[in-house]
Each structure stands twice: as C-alpha cells, then as structure tokens.
Design goal:
Layout: E1 11-14, H1 20-31, E2 35-40, H2 44-56, E3 61-65, H3 71-85, E4 90-93, H4 108-135, E5 139-144, H5 148-151, H6 157-177, E6 182-189, H7 198-201, H8 205-212, H9 223-234, E7 245-248
Parallel strand pairs: 1-2, 1-4, 2-3, 4-5, 5-6, 6-7
Bound molecules: NADP nicotinamide-adenine-dinucleotide phosphate.
C-alpha cells in the first residue's frame, strides 16, 4: 500500500499551535516526522503540555510565546528556528481570532484585534518567513482562511474581510513566490469544534443542533479534520497544487 509521504526532518513553523486546529496540526506533522516549532499568545500551560507530550514520543518540538501581530516577534521566532535547526522549510499561518464587528461598529478594539492578528500580522509573519524559506532554497506555505472569507459572515464583518484577504494573499504569494520554489496554498474551514467556536457550539445544545443541521455529512468537523488537509498541502502529494483554496467545510459552502 502506498503510504502518506513522510515529512521527515522538515522544519515547519505553525502559528497558534497551542490549541485547536494549530495544535492538531503540530501533533500530526510531528507524527509524520517533521520538526515542528509553534507559537502561542497566552496559553503557556497548553503549549507546555503539548511540547512535553510530543517530546516524550521522541519528536523534536519547539514552542515560542510570540504575538502574530508584531514583526519583531516573527523575526525573533524565525531566527530562533534557523539557529536551532539550520533553516526553515515550511510555514502554517494559522493563528487567528473570531470577534464580532457588527456593521454599526461599536467596538474599535475588536476591529483592530481582528485585522491586526488575522491580516496585517499575518503579512508581517509572511515577510519574515519568506526570507527564511528563500535562504533554505524554497519551501511551502499554508495559510488558514475560512468560509467567512468566501461568503461573508453576518455580525463578523472584520473577520470575514480578514479571511477574504487571506485568500487573495495566498494567490498573490503563489504568483510572486512560485519562481523562488515556494509553493503557497490555503485551507478554508467552516465551523470547527474548537475553543474559538465554543460559545456557539458547546454552550447551548439547541444551537449546536442548528449548526449540525447545515452539514450534509451530519457532523461538525474537529481540529484533526483540518490538520490532515494542511499536512497534505505541505506534502509531496501536493507538488502540483499551488495558489489553491482547499475547502474543508464539510460541504456547508459549496464553492470553488
Ligand atoms: N474554529 C472554527 O470554527 C474555525 C473556522 C474557520 C476558520 N478558523 C480559523 O482557524 C484558525 C485556528 O482557529 P482555532 O479554532 O483553532 O482557534 P483556537 O482554538 O481559538 O486557537 C487559537 C490559537 O491561536 C493563538 N493565537 C490567537 N491570537 C494570537 C496572536 N495574536 N498571536 C499568536 N497566537 C495567537 C492561540 O494562542 P493561545 O492558546 O496562547 O491563546 C491559539 O493557539 C484561525 O485562523 C481561525 O480563524 C476556525
């Protein structure tokens, strides 16, 4: 039987790896043989548990407290990874926040937090990562968007706009960086059962049932369901996939 291509020895940086989709991705990439560095913002406890669990299984994992909003943090983390492992081969731009910004905007702080984390910060991290990938002679980037970026989301305009921009950033980077041997793609999940969506999915069973009902497959994806497609896009099985938005939404939004 053909097995999934190993990512043996690949040096991969994942932002927002302490919880949710990022955590599942870190675990899977480590199991596929990669050396994985990940960032977190505040949950040092979760990051520590993850590092210790993977290290106990013999995996090489590094964790960094680093805010996706700042370029200084990106420079520091990328520099530390290059120092530890001699270079960087791949990047997963995953960290993000989902905060309400209704059309009649009442909360400027939310607006800034969403755009700075999901959009401008991601630009800054990409800038540092791209230089590092070029120093390594090429590599792979996977960014995490959302169905909100494809069809909009009532009450979450800044989030939807930020995720729409992640899609256009993916296509721009693919065009720009292909000649440098850097393959760039994006995943677009819909509802995923993580801490981010907990207030909508884990508090009110009736609300959860309403969300479940929009899934033709009948169940709400979990973080591991998104990690697999991310690993695929990073792997050699996706060598001809470039500038693509891979919908991982359980069929709730049939686009592409
Ligand atoms: N869950 C969904 O329904 C869903 C749907 C579509 C798209 N997405 C996207 O998928 C990505 C991951 O979401 P998730 O559901 O896994 O979220 P999550 O469970 O809330 O985890 C978010 C992760 O990002 C980190 N983070 C947040 N802000 C950060 C910042 N400024 N700098 C560095 N790290 C930061 C968090 O660190 P701490 O642990 O330290 O807080 C955590 O590791 C996001 O981009 C999100 O928009 C999620």
């Amino acid at each position: 039987m053909t097995t999934f291509p190993a990512l043996t020895g690949k040096r991969i940086l994942v932002t927002g790896g302490s919880r949710g989709i990022g955590e599942a991705t870190v675990r899977l990439l480590a199991q596929l043989g990669a050396r994985v560095a990940f960032t977190y913002q505040a949950r040092q406890d979760a990051a520590k548990v993850l590092v210790e669990a993977l290290a106990a299984q013999g995996h090489e994992v590094l964790a960094f407290q680093a805010d996706q909003r700042t370029r200084e943090a990106a420079k520091r983390v990328v520099g530390n990874v290059e120092q530890a492992w001699g270079g960087l081969d791949a990047f997963v731009g995953n960290a993000g926040v989902w905060l309400p910004t209704p059309a009649e905007l009442t909360d400027e702080d939310n607006l800034e937090a969403v755009l700075e984390t999901n959009l401008t910060g991601l630009f800054r991290w990409n800038a540092e990562v791209v230089s590092a990938l070029k120093r390594s002679g090429g590599g792979t980037i996977v960014l995490v968007s959302s169905t909100a970026g494809q069809r909009g989301e009532a009450g979450y305009g800044a989030y939807a706009a930020s995720k729409g921009a992640v899609i256009s950033l993916t296509k721009t980077l693919a065009t720009e960086l292909g000649p440098a041997g850097i393959r760039v793609n994006c995943v677009a999940p819909g509802w995923v059962d993580t801490d981010l969506s907990a207030a909508a999915l884990r508090v009110d069973p009736a609300q959860r049932k309403r969300v479940e009902a929009i899934f033709p497959l009948g169940h709400i994806p979990v973080a591991e369901d998104i990690a697999g497609p991310i690993a695929f896009l990073l792997s050699e099985w996706a060598v001809a996939v470039h500038g693509e938005i891979l919908n991982v939404n359980g069929g709730t939004v049939l686009c592409g």
